[in-house]
Amino acid sequence: MQHNVIAKVNGRSRVVAAAMDLPSGFPFQTYLTNGTIAGLVNGTITASTLVINATDAHLNISPNLRSYAFDYSVKGYIVNPSYKAATGTTGLITFSTLSRTGKYVPSYPDVFYNRIWLIPTSINVDGAPQQYSTTAVVWNSYFSDKTIVSVSPNNLTGVNISGFLTGAFKSLESKTYTISLTSSVSAVVNGFYQFNFSDAEDPILPVTGTISLAFPYKHNWSTDYIETYSLKSGIIESHNGIEQTFKLSANPRRSLSMDVLLADNTGYADISAIRAKFYNSMAYGKSKSWIVPLWADAQILQSSLAAGSLTINTATTNLDFKVGGYIYIYKNYNNYEISTISSLTPTSITLSAATQKTWDSGSYVIPAVQARLQDDSIKGSIINYGIESFNLIWAVIPKDNEQINKIGTFSTVTYNGYPVFLWKHNFIEDPSVEVYSPNRLLDFEVGNFILDPRYNFNRVRSTFSYLLKNKSEISSALGFFTLVSGKQKPFWMPTYSNEIQVTSSGSSSSNIINIKDIGYSSFIKQNPNQRDIILIKTDGTYILRRIVASSGNGDGTEKLTLDQEVGFNWTSATFREGHFLKLVRLDQDSLEVTYATNTIANISFVIVDSMQA
Q1: What are the start-end ranges of the E strands in 39-122?
Q2: Do 253 and 396 contact (CB within 8 A), yes or no?
Q3: pLDDT of residue 422
Q4: Strand 557-562 vs strand 542-552: parallel, antiparallel, or unpaired?
């Protein structure tokens, strides 16, 4: 039967197709924005001519639901028609129409399903230690079962894979595989695993990276364990000593100095093997990276840890455990395993892979870093027959935006825009003091000479040491060092020389105090570097004030006028001590933390006056 299709838009008719042979009862799929079709009832042709009455229309013909469409462009609707004759007829029916080309846009199911997924798509073992393991997931996103016949390694020496290696993957099923490094892994890994399916594609999982070696040796605590934190600052100094400082490094770099004692706890029966293994590993790994345990942060397991465990109950506060970082579970140089941390709380660590062994209480849990040997030589000494000691200095490999978790927050007050550092020198080591004022000498060696002083006042450089008695104090000291960024930022610090000894009494509204005569009004006279003071009360509280005027009283005392009132009623007995408060900066860009034990350490600060205008 022949049919005509006419589109009538806004009263004007257009023949879409004429004398079109269609089978009786041919189904039409239609879409009208606004209008009706005459000659079409419930999608079936009932008349010889179809008339579309619409302002906008789109007509689709889909014979036998086979998605062959007869479309026409009416008032802006662009359609590409084609109709293939139904079964039993011959020929291809074509229509004169507006032609357009384009690309098929895949939908979400097209992109997401009907393929084999690898998660992740590659594994990077750069910096990973020997005995490291991680996981990958293979997911069959087909809506039918698929069969894996093998998993083939390519150029992967010393790398093992375990999991579902042969058999049927159910529809939409995923399986987890474990990829492990062994002691025979190559220094550079550059290979892949291919997952071979009999009835699907064969995805490839690349495994690449440069391997780090394990350093499973204890620090010898009869010697100091030293961590050094280094920054980089720039200083521009004017002729009169006024400075401009700026930061050159964003984060501190670290180095570690530790001593290793090659001995065997069982009576030195195995000392030859220990020494040979140490020598061989040093020779093999001199230019490689290592996973080095941070023995100053070692913790002890309080209860046993079963094989297959993912959680370790241990303290982490003020210690260098961090997400993504390495961790040793350690018994001795020949019995340990290394993992990475996926998450942590103040009292627990969650590992990225389950433990491979059972660990007794008393085993160590130690954070670790990736490092290289800093020096070209390793210095050692023979202590006794068969017993040797070596000192190793490690340069920790820096990472972008790395957070060092043991660096805490230094809590302090600010005075005139700068932090105040109120720690006292501990006198374990005598403080050193250098007073200097550089001069420019004009001397032609034929007559008199001239000295041109650069500074208006003397400058003082001092060295102070501090005993840190617990992890919290160590963390706070590191926090202070990073707060002032080494040499970069000035801070206030008392001289702790008790120069300001109050001899008078006064009310809270008074801003004048009398002190024992120190020649302030005669010699110092509000020197910018000696015009601020701290008065510490007997209860430990204090006030910070600036001297704005001074004069001698002629009776062995001097009068100081302060910029603010004292704020409370006082007598000479109210104050335990009084000191000048000097604006200073560190004269060092590195800080050595010297550990006597893993909880007690000593640091030293070299401090120099920051010249003020």
Answers
A1: 40-41, 44-45, 49-60, 83-84, 92-93, 116-119
A2: yes
A3: 93
A4: antiparallel
> Per residue, what are the HEC states of 517-560?
CCCHHHHHCCCCCCCEEEEEECCCCEEEEEEEEEEECCCCEEEE
Q: From its phi and psi, is residue 95 left (phi > 0), alpha (psi between -120 and 50) or beta?
A: beta
Q: Contact, 486 vs 588, CB < 8 A?
A: yes
pLDDT of residue 256: 96
CB of 566 closer than 8 Å to CB of 578: no
d(CA 378, CA 372): 12
Using omega within 30 degrees of 0 as the cis cutoff, is the peptide bond preceding 129 cis? Answer: no
pLDDT band, very low/low/confident/very high, at 275 (cuts 50, 70, 90): confident
Tell me whether residue 578 is exposed, middle or buried, using C-beta atoms within 10 angstroms of its C-beta: 0 to 12, 13 to 18, 19 or more. Answer: buried
Distance CA 70, CA 84 (A): 9
Amino acid at the residue 438 = P
* Tens-digit pLDDT profile for residues 316-327: 999 999 988 899
Q: Nearest to residue 120, comparing CAs of 5, 207, 246, 209?
A: 207
Alpha carbons 571 and 553: distance in angstroms, whole number: 18
CB of 93 within 8 A of CB of 83? Answer: yes
Spatial contact of 368 and 292, defined as CB atoms under 8 Å apart = yes
| CA pair distance 179, 160, nearest whole angstrom | 6
Distances in Å between the Cα of 579 and the Cα atoms of 356, 363, 411, 495, 498 are: 60, 50, 21, 6, 5
The pLDDT of residue 101: 63
Res 40: pLDDT = 47
Tabulate helix, strand, coil % of the chain (nearest 5). Answer: 10, 45, 45
Q: b/e for 548-560, b at 16 or more Cβ within 10 A?
A: eebeeeeeebbbb
Tokens of 427: 């006198």
Q: Residue 68 pLDDT > 60, yes or no? A: no
Q: Which of 29-43, 56-70, 220-234, 573-587 has the lowest mean pLDDT?
A: 56-70
Residue given tokens 């050692």 in the structure block: 380
What value does the mean pLDDT take over residues 119-126? 90
Structural contact between residues 53 and 36, judged by C-beta atoms closer than 8 angstroms: yes
Asked whether the beta carbons of 133 and 178 are under 8 A apart, the reply is yes
**Of 254, 233, 253, nearest in space to 245 by CA:** 233
Query: What's 601's DSSP letter?
Result: E
pLDDT of 99 strictly over 60: no
Residues 6+ apart with CB under 8 A from 193: 151, 152, 153, 154, 156, 161, 179, 204, 205, 207
Q: Which range among 31-45, 92-106, 198-212 shows the weakest confidence by mean pLDDT?
A: 31-45
pTM above 0.70? Answer: no
Question: In sequence order, what are the beta bridge partners of 609?
Answer: 584
Tokens linked to 22: 């269609």
567 against 39, higher pLDDT = 567
Tens of pLDDT, residue by residue over 373-425, are: 888 777 777 776 667 888 999 999 887 777 788 999 898 899 999 999 999 88
